[in-house]
């Protein structure tokens, strides 16, 4: 089907643009770090109100302006990426449904009867296997991940709108979703001890590091 392939190409292009934006933001951030780590809000004048002579004020102002513009572009780009992920997910499901309809029609043409309903159900399940994309290797006590019910060795097959059909095998994709969905619900499909669990994860600030409090690696 042409649709999913085209959407996937667009998604990969936007992901590449996102990475380039992040590289530029980091580069301008280094400029601020090199100028006494002045950051985005550090003073540009001394205690007497004169321009500081220990930093390059022109470069600092330019870097701050560029970072603001790039961060706005990054926010807009992340929204487009999320929309494309949802679109690709929907198109993939539609393609699977069309394939199933074609197979069902072919079975009917070949004289398959309604007595084969159990075989048809097995075929439906076989068309959409649950494939893990990442794995949890550690969960911190009291973290958002633990509160959601995640455990070490859980394998995640769906992380929001990302699944095996559209995942680019870059952990930065998961990180981007987490950052963009801060304080929002992210539905997960989790494989644990041959069971499939539906879990809702809410990335948020807590007493530990990061927004999740767990370590995620690519699934083997």
What is shown here, in short?
The chain has 220 residues and is of the alpha+beta class. It has helices at 2-34, 57-109, 117-127, 144-148, 171-180; strands at residues 134-139, 155-159, 186-192, 195-201, 214-218.
Question: Which stretches are poorly predicted, pLDDT < 50 over at least 5 residues?
Answer: 112-127
Order of helices and strands: HHHEHEHEEE
Strand composition percent:
5-15%
Span between termini:
28 Å
InterPro entries: Nas2_N (IPR040815), PDZ (IPR001478), PDZ_sf (IPR036034), PSMD9 (IPR035269)
Domain PDZ: 132-199
Region (Disordered): 92-122
Pfam family, one: Nas2_N
Describe this structure in words.
With 220 residues, this protein is an alpha+beta fold. It contains 5 helices and 5 strands, in the order αααβαβαβββ. It has helices spanning 2-34, 57-109, 117-127, 144-148, 171-180, and strands at residues 134-139, 155-159, 186-192, 195-201, 214-218. A hairpin with a 2-residue loop joins strand 3 and strand 4 (195-201). Helix 1 runs antiparallel to helix 2. The longest helix is centred in the middle third of the chain and has 53 residues, at 57-109.
